[in-house]
Fold this protein.
Amino acid sequence: MSRAAVTEVKTERHPNMATDTQSRELTDGFHLVIDALKLNDIDTIFGLPGIPITDLTRMAQAEGMRVISFRHEQHAGNAAAAAGYLTQKPGICLTVSAPGFLNGLTALANATTNCFPMILISGSSEREVVDLQQGDYEEMDQLAIAKPLCKAAFRVLHAQDIGVGVARAIRSALSGRPGGVYLDLPAKLFAQTLDAVEGRNSLIKVVDPAPRQLPAPDSVQRALALLKGAKRPLIVLGKGASYAQADADIRALIEKTGIPYLPMSMAKGLLPDTHEQSASAARSYVLAEADVVMLVGARLNWLLSHGKGKTWGTPGAKQFIQIDIAPTEMDSNVPIAAPLVGDIGSCVAALLGGVGSGWAKPPAAWTGAINERKDKNLSKMAETLAKNPSPMNFHSALGVVREVIKARPDVMLVNEGANTLDFTRSIVDMYEPRKRLDVGTWGIMGIGMGFAVAAAVVTGKPVIAIEGDSAFGFSGMEVETICRYNLPICVVVFNNNGVYRGTDVNSSGTADVAPTVFVKGARYDKMMEAFGGVGVHATTPAELSKAIDEALASGKPTLINAVIDETAGTESGRITMLNPQTAAKK
Ligand code: ADP
Ligand code: TZD
């Protein structure tokens, strides 16, 4: 317990005695917030100081917490979300009132959408003034605004309730389906004092914040029966599966049953992408042809074409098993024949128990057909990667990154962009769980530097961030943060002069460039140099390879401006079909 102040308190003693002076220890709101977080093993705050939380950041640092200060709250929020995903502890983002809060809110909403546990803690203005709308400094009813965008939102008005507020925030973020929580701390709270012992006793160490949720035995039997009867079974692993940290059991289930599996992008590496049962290189085939599909921590949202349509083959020919902690996820798009509600660790363990040792592997006709397509697609890919076109394109640049990760599977990979995202996902194999962080469920741009900082801070491993030039722009100023904390992050900007590509033309004839076009030949590497990091301009795979190797060897903040053919790729990458088209003639 930290000491806020030792205050002289005059106490009236027995009438026969003279007035005595006693020392009493006090604590205050600042210290109680820090103590409550520390008591719950939260050791890092991602944030941006200012009224009313400047002293909170200083004191947290003084009390031994790691305080990572960003240049914009959205990136601090994204860092908190990524930290939550990687550690199963809620990542903390700390902001000032109204505008700082709003800047952090996108990250909170994105964390909730992706089922990442985080807590956005924002200072707020005086309740009395805010509620009467009398115009306080940075006035805003933040609690009301946060509520629809997160799992839960709480406000603490009294110092003695800080322990409860923090405990409720932690439990809400972690239990059931993880997500974002908002904690509103009005300015007045911080200086409120409390007897230190009373303060200490008011704090709560949350016991079992994410209780195991065991699946019902009959639901396990139903799932096993369906799997057993399948002729063409498939397992889809999502980021819920990687979050769950049930790596060994998931691998055992897949290997014991011999069922081919598909990892969603952030589940890559849960088993090595080179695993013989990986069906990634035959994705369209297995999705269309499987007769029983078991989803493990993956939603049937747009990323899986909602479980229907052409992607999924003959309508009604497929049956789904879904493992998820959220019961209401079931039947959200198509009927789920065998819902398995519970935490992934418990569900997979229960299935493993039922699989036993005599499980019949899937028919060779199915696995053989998959392998045939895999071999064909993989050799096609190898051919493309072997080319060395000038200018460099996505494939030749990513051929380099693929080799780097193969040699250093412990490296964290952050990835955003359109083509840059799609090509990296399919070309760069991952070998270890939770090494890949990307744009997730929303396909959001701007997670790059926040996720990279969190990855470096939380894991202590080197980070490579593969960024489209547009994507990088959303969080580019955080290269200063990367340099300030001297983080081993190597940012690679795939520079093709614009959003998607750099070739668009303004058809109106005015001097402005087209809306998707950037300054041609921009030198993003100079941004890193401006803050003392290493900047490299790379135009060939050989230069790129050398620069990444040097960055990994030195651990110095590095930004490589990788020049990519501006005609390569497509508009919106692989999701061009989601782009509305006008039917009107010009
Ligand atoms: P992806 O984008 O990789 O397909 P999604 O984000 O759509 O994955 O799905 C993740 C799912 O995992 C969510 O429905 C969430 O409820 C679930 N989930 C997250 N953590 C757990 C857990 N520990 N146990 C069970 N389900 C979980
Ligand atoms: N704003 C936000 C917050 N998220 C988004 N997804 C977009 C805008 C729209 N958008 C995409 O979906 S991808 C993208 C944008 C702006 C950038 C694509 O260009 P890039 O990547 O340079 O990053 P490629 O590799 O050149 O295609």
